[in-house]
């Protein structure tokens, strides 16, 4: 077991291309099923990292392949 806040400290890595996707910003929780439905990752930054360049990235929970000590491996397009 782990706390959802622990995910904010881990790198999110896409298995398809090895890219680091960004930090966890939020989580979508399904109260009817009592499960996390998706992770919301902070979108890319621009202007010296000060302003958001785009939309947040939503990773459905079924796309998460492995949660490790230092990283979370996901498979998204």
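Sequence proposed for the structure above (77 residues):
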């Amino acid at each position: 077991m782990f706390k959802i806040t622990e995910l904010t400290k881990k790198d999110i890595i896409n298995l398809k291309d090895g890219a680091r996707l960004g930090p966890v910003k939020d989580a979508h929780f399904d109260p009817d099923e009592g499960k996390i439905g998706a992770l919301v990752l902070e979108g890319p930054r621009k202007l010296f990292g000060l302003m958001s360049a785009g939309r947040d990235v939503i990773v459905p929970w079924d796309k998460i392949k492995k949660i490790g000590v230092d990283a979370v491996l996901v498979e998204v397009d």
